[in-house]
Amino acid sequence: MLPGKLLWTVDNGTLRLVLRVYFITMTTLLGLIGSECCKCAAKVDLLSGNNVKLNRMTGWLRPIDIWTCVYKLRRLPGGVLLGFVMITTTLLSLTADLAVSKLVLPTVGPSDCIFTTGLVMNWINNETFASPPPNSYPALIASNVQIYSAYSNCSVGIYNKVPINGDPLFCAKEKDILGGWNCQDQNADQQFDPSVSESDIEQTLLSASLQYSNMSFNNYYKGDESHTTHLVIWSSSIESNDLGSPFDVLVSIDLEADITDTKTMKTFKCTALSNTEEGQTAINGILSQTESVTALADWVLGLEGVLYEGYGSKASTYAESRLEQYLNTMTMVQGGGNSVLSVPTDNFIYGCIKAKAEISLAIVVLIIFTAFLLVVTFLYWIILLLIIFKHAISRKTKRKLGLKNISPVPDSIIGWMLQAAREHAQGSDFTAEGAPKTEEDLRDWDFKIVDRTQGVARMLRARGDDMTTPLLVHETPKR
C-alpha cells in the first residue's frame, strides 16, 4: 500500500457507489438546508427593520445561476456566508465525483479465508510411510502455496495447514506459520578441476566437515565418467534412519554451468527454526518422525529444478531461498501425512488475499469536509430559527409593537413569481381579494403580452376571481 492510501475490505465498484451516494446525499442536504438559511437570514434582517439586498434573496442556485448572479450583480448570491457555501458545494460536488472516479482503485490485500479440508500438520501421531513422497499432490500444493504467498509479499515457511485446492490466493500470516528452514552459506567454497570424480569431491567435502557421511547426490549432465555439471550433494545430521530427533541438512551445490568449467562447490547448512516455542516443538516433532536419510535420497532428484534454470545455466541467484522452500515442502508433506483430506481441530481460518479498494486520503478529507460543512450550515439554520422564534415570543408575551413574521419570503423562482403576482394584483395590499396568497394559487396565473407594439408582457390571472382552474389545465376562451 502506497503512502497516503487506505485499504478497505470491499469491492472498489461497491465503494465508489457508496461514496457517490454519500456525496450526492450530502450536497442535496446542503442545498435544502442552505435554501432555508437564505430564507431565514432574509427574515431576520426584515424583522430587525433592515432592508435586504436582492442578491441575498436568490435562494439556493444552480451552478450556472451562481456565476450569472456574480457576473451581473457583482455580489454573491445569498450573501457572503451562504454564497461561499453555495460555491463550495458546487465545487465539492464536481471535485468529489472526479476524485471518486480517479482515487478509488481496485487492489488486493491480506484477509482471511475459511479452511475446510487440506494438508494439516500433525506432529503427535507417527506416520507409516518410510519418507514423504516427493511426487505427490500434497507436495505440489505445499510447494505452490509458498510461491503464491511470496508473490503476494506474505510469509513463506512451514504452514500449519494448506487448503486442499492449493489456493492461488494463499497469503500466510504469522498465525499460519510454524516456522521454516533457514539455510546459511558456510563461506567455505571448494574448487575442483573438471576431471575430478564425484566420489573424490564427496570425500573432500566430508573431510572438510562440509558433508555428513550419509550423503545423497545427483548430477544431471555428464560428458564422460569424470566430467559432470549441476552436481548436488546433501546429507542429514542423523547418521541413519533412526527416529526421535530433529536433524539439520548440509547441501553442497555446483555453481558452474559447463562440464569444462572449474567446479565450485558452495555449501549451505540448513536448520528448521521457529520464532515461537510452540512452533519449534511442532517442527521438531515432525522432523523426529522423518526417516531423514531415506527422505533426502528420495528428494535429491528434484534439486536440479530447484537450484538451476535448465541446461547451460549456473546455480540460480535464488538458490538459497528456493532450497529453503523445497525443505519446507518436504516437511509439510511429512507433517500432513501426505493427505489433503484432514480437518483441523481448531482455527478454521487461513490467510489469503481478497479484492479490496485502495482509497486516497484526499477522499477521506473530502468526506470529513463535506460533513463539517453540512453541520456548520445546519447549526447556522438552527440559530436563525431561534432568532425568529425569539422575536415571535417577545412580540407575543411582552405585547410589544413590532413587525409580524413575514411569510412567505421569496427565495426561489416560484417564490418570486408569487411575489410578482401579489404586487401586480393589489399593489402593497396583499390581503385584498384576488391577490395570490400561496404558491399553489399561481396555477391560475399566466404571463401574457399586453402591448404587442412595445413588446410588453406581464402576469395576469387566467380566470375570474370567482373561478378556479385545475392544476396545469388552461382552456382557451371561446370567441
Explain the layout of strands and helices.
Blueprint lengths: L4 E4 L3 H36 L15 H11 L5 H25 E11 L3 E3 L16 H15 L6 E2 L1 E3 L13 E9 L4 E3 L5 H10 L8 E3 L2 E4 L2 E3 L2 E5 L12 E6 L8 E11 L3 H12 L3 H8 L3 H5 L11 H17 L13 E12 H37 L15 H14 L18 E7 L4 E6 L18
Antiparallel strand pairs: 1-14, 2-14, 3-5, 4-6, 6-13, 7-13, 8-11, 9-10, 11-12, 12-13, 15-16
Helix pairs in contact: 1-3, 1-10, 3-10, 4-9
Keywords: Membrane, Transmembrane, Transmembrane helix
Biggest β-sheet, characterized? 7 strands, antiparallel
The topology string of helices and strands comes to EHHHEEHEEEEHEEEEEEHHHHEHHEE
Roughly how many Å is the radius of gyration? 42 Å
Q: Give the number of domains.
A: 3
Kindly name the structural category. Answer: alpha+beta
Mean pLDDT: 85
**How much of the polypeptide forms β-strand, as a percent range?**
15-25%
User: What is the helix tally?
Assistant: 11
Distance between the termini: 79 Å
The general outline is rod-shaped
Q: Helix content range of the residues, please?
A: 25-40%
Count of β-strands: 16
List low-pLDDT spans.
465-479
Question: Can you describe what's shown?
Answer:
The chain has three domains: about 1-115 and about 350-405, no CATH class; about 175-345, no CATH class; about 410-479, no CATH class. Strand 12 and strand 13 (about 265-275) form a beta hairpin. It is of the alpha+beta class and about 475 residues long. The chain has eleven helices and 16 strands. The model is unreliable at about 465-479 (pLDDT under 50). The chain has helices spanning about 10-45, 65-75, 80-105, 135-150, 200-205, 275-290, 290-300, 305, 320-335, 360-395, 415-425, and strands spanning about 5-10, 105-115, 120, 160, 160-165, 175-185, 190, 215-220, 220-225, 225-230, 230-235, 250-255, 265-275, 350-360, 445-450, 455-460. The chain is rod-shaped and about 120 Å long. Helices cover about 40% and strands about 20% of the residues. Helix 1 (about 10-45) packs antiparallel against helix 3 (about 80-105), helix 1 runs parallel beside helix 10 and helix 4 crosses helix 9 (about 320-335). The strands form five sheets. Strands 4, 6, 7, 8, 11, 12 and 13 form a seven-stranded antiparallel beta sheet that branches. Strands 1-14-2 form a three-stranded antiparallel beta sheet. A two-stranded antiparallel sheet has the order 3-5. The chain starts with a strand and ends in an 18-residue tail after the last strand.
